[in-house]
């Protein structure tokens, strides 16, 4: 009888082939994986709250408003149009230097308020428009205006919990002296002929107040755009003509 033929173990070739595919030891594999995962760290973009938290608050000035309008319209309008959108220094009231309460500031810039209030008889219009960034801030301003307004009627002109139809009816029914609201809702009321600018004498921008994220009215993109659109709707023209004065609180 012939002795049984010797057979090579099948697994040896498989092991060799398998060994060729393995890129070294476990430590080397970990290094390769770690190197592949490492990415250059991106420099975190500074938020406005980071910048403002380290700097002392500065009161708004007429130059800030002029710069805002110029940056917004500069590349979009012709030279003639830009000239019509410029606000001369005579359009501005003295800005708040951050020492005033709201009522004391209004008393200073509008010493003849009692007379203006008594002479105002027209419906669907106001003598003073106060523009702020949020409904909650508007409510704060309404509370703090008590010492100034006297017998004058103040109306909320913001969207939160108040339909525009309700505001339109209120403007039609009674005489309102002061409107305090957000630029988007005020703009909508003017567009729908619910609010007239015919008796307007003062526009106050709540410029210096900052929200929880330290943002001013002009630091919030949507509010900034709505404020500029509102100014362009007719307020700039009235200021240039001298019938309306612009203040920064």
Automatic annotation (TrEMBL):
<feature type="region of interest" description="Disordered">
    <location>
        <begin position="1"/>
        <end position="65"/>
    </location>
</feature>
<feature type="compositionally biased region" description="Basic and acidic residues">
    <location>
        <begin position="28"/>
        <end position="40"/>
    </location>
</feature>
<dbReference type="GO" id="GO:0030686">
    <property type="term" value="C:90S preribosome"/>
</dbReference>
<dbReference type="Pfam" id="PF14617">
    <property type="entry name" value="CMS1"/>
</dbReference>
<dbReference type="InterPro" id="IPR032704">
    <property type="entry name" value="Cms1"/>
</dbReference>
<protein>
    <submittedName>
        <fullName>Protein CMSS1 isoform X2</fullName>
    </submittedName>
</protein>
<dbReference type="InterPro" id="IPR027417">
    <property type="entry name" value="P-loop_NTPase"/>
</dbReference>
<dbReference type="GO" id="GO:0005634">
    <property type="term" value="C:nucleus"/>
</dbReference>
